[in-house]
Amino acid sequence: MVRENEIRDAESAVALPSGYDAEIYFIGRIRTPWDSRLLTPRQGRADGPVCHIEIFEPWVAALEDVAQFARLEVLYWLHLSRRDLVRQSPANDGAARGTFSLRSPVRPNPIGTQIVELVSIEGNMLSVRGMDCLDGTPLIDIKPDRTLFSPIAPPQPGDFQTS
Ligand code: SAM
């Protein structure tokens, strides 16, 4: 079962810290066909429906050169998630697992990541396949899929360090 915001048997919540350690900018908004967590895919699929990622100003210029990558890594803020669970019961069967052993949207910093297939870019709008978030989910970042990307900056000593 997908949760809304309830705590299930065997789950543990903690008191959240009183302040934050960082600030982020929402750089855009993800448009998908899903308006309920109960309908949204648990993980996106490469043959899923085309979804749209709208980039806000002043970040649109940062889309330059993105079109050369067939796949992108998208990071987004799962804004409706609770953030205080350290043990969760994904199957709601009385058994719990540590939050960091799961890809649940419920986590201290509810960041979702997904590799998507790039369909097109027109102006400030990307069309992609593979998303798994609610319509209107805030966008944090876009990067080339690391398997397609070679660093352009010169190598550094750490690049050659082993063991
Ligand atoms: N692919 C990402 C990952 O692995 O980091 C996210 C996976 S998470 C399991 C996907 C689920 O999060 C969806 O099935 C939906 O139930 C929930 N979800 C999607 N968008 C959300 C949002 N904006 N706020 C809270 N929950 C959301």
Characterise the protein shown here.
Belongs to the tRNA methyltransferase O family. It comes from Aminobacter ciceronei. GO terms for molecular function: methyltransferase activity. With 163 residues, the protein is an all-beta fold. The protein has a single domain, classed as Elongation Factor Tu (Ef-tu), domain 3 (Beta Barrel), CATH 2.40.30. Helix content is 0%, strand content 31%. It has no helices and nine strands. It has strands spanning 12-13, 28-31, 50-55, 71-77, 85-88, 97-98, 111-122, 125-129, 137-144. A six-stranded antiparallel beta barrel has the order 2-3-8-7-4-9. 20% of the residues are buried. The structure holds S-adenosylmethionine. S-adenosylmethionine is lined by residues 2, 37, 40-43, 78-81, 103-105, 112-114, 132-134, 137.
Please name the CATH topology.
Elongation Factor Tu (Ef-tu), domain 3
Query: Secondary-structure element order, as H and E?
Result: EEEEEEEEE
Note the overall shape.
Answer: globular
CATH architectural label: Beta Barrel
Average pLDDT figure:
96
Task: Detail the topology: elements first, then pairings.
Blueprint: E1 12-13, E2 28-31, E3 50-55, E4 71-77, E5 85-88, E6 97-98, E7 111-122, E8 125-129, E9 137-144
Antiparallel strand pairs: 1-5, 2-3, 2-9, 3-8, 4-7, 4-9, 5-6, 7-8
The structure holds S-adenosylmethionine.
S-adenosylmethionine (SAM) binds next to strand 7.
